[in-house]
Design a protein that fits this description.
There is one protein chain. This protein has helices at about 35-45, 85-100, 120-130, 150-165, 180-190, 200-205, and strands spanning about 5-10, 25-30, 60-65, 70-75, 105-115, 135-140, 170. It has about 200 residues and is of the alpha/beta class. It has a single domain, classed as 3-Layer(aba) Sandwich (Rossmann fold). A seven-stranded mixed sheet has the order 1-3-4-2-5-6-7, sandwiched between helices. Residues about 200-205 have low confidence and may be disordered.
Length: about 200
C-alpha cells in the first residue's frame, strides 16, 4: 500500500460524533508516551500531521484521519501515565471501550508497546476488549532503535511471555529509522479487504 494522501478529519469524545463513513478502519492504541504519534506520522509519510503532546496524557480525544480517501486511521487517547489524574483515566477507558464496541468498520488494531517496557494491565485489558469484539490485534513494539540486537531478543521474549502471544503477532518498529513501515502498510492493505467476523458468527464456530 502506498500513501498518496492523508488528512486530519475530526476529534471526538462522543460516539454520536464519530464519522459515518464505512471506510476500512485501523486503530492505534498505546500508553501515553509510547511513541504513537511518531509512528503514525512515519506510516503516513508526514512530519507532524499527528500532533505530539507536550507532555504525556495530554490527548484526551479520539482522532480520525482519512488516508487515500478510502481508509480511516484512528489515534486513540493514551493513558496509563502515572501522573495522569485518576478522574481522567476513569473517563478515557469507557470512551475507548465504546469506540471498540461501536465501530463495525474497524478491521485491525495496532497495540503499541515501548520495547524497553513491560506489558501490564493496560495492554491485557485492551487485548481482551478487542478479542471480545472480534477485532484482530497486532502487537507493535516501538523505539526498537534504542536497543541492541541482543537487548531486543530479551525484551521481545519478556513481552511475548507476559502477554501469552505468538512471536508472529509481534512487529518491530522505529519512527527514527522507518523500521517496520513496509510491514505495517502491507498488513493494512491486506486487512482492508477482510470481512469482520460478527460476535454471533464467532460463537457458532
Amino acid at each position: 500500500m502506498k500513501i498518496k494522501s492523508a488528512e486530519f478529519l475530526k476529534s471526538c469524545t462522543n460516539p454520536s460524533h464519530f464519522p459515518g463513513y464505512d471506510y476500512p478502519e485501523f486503530a492505534f492504541f498505546g500508553r501515553s508516551n509510547v511513541g504513537k504519534s511518531s509512528l503514525l506520522n512515519m506510516i503516513l509519510g508526514q512530519k507532524d500531521l499527528v500532533k505530539t503532546g507536550a507532555r504525556p496524557g495530554v490527548t484526551q480525544t479520539i482522532n480520525f484521519f482519512v488516508v487515500n480517501g478510502s481508509r480511516s486511521f484512528v489515534d486513540l487517547p493514551g493513558f496509563g501515565y502515572a501522573k495522569l489524574p485518576m478522574s481522567i483515566r476513569k473517563k478515557l477507558f469507557p470512551m475507548v471501550k465504546e469506540y471498540i464496541e461501536k465501530r463495525e468498520n474497524l478491521k485491525l488494531a495496532f497495540l503499541l508497546i515501548d520495547v524497553r517496557r513491560v506489558a501490564g494491565d493496560y495492554e491485557q485489558d485492551i487485548i481482551e476488549l478487542l478479542a471480545e469484539n472480534n477485532v484482530p490485534v497486532v502487537i507493535t513494539l516501538t523505539k526498537c532503535d534504542k536497543l541492541s540486537k541482543n537487548q531486543r531478543v530479551k525484551h521481545i521474549n519478556d513481552i511475548q511471555k507476559s502477554l501469552g502471544i505468538d512471536r508472529d503477532s509481534i512487529f518491530l518498529t522505529s519512527s527514527e529509522t522507518n523500521e517496520g513501515k513496509k510491514e505495517l502498510l502491507m498488513l493494512i492493505d491486506e486487512f482492508s479487504h477482510s470481512k469482520k467476523q460478527s460476535t454471533a458468527e464467532s460463537s457458532d464456530t
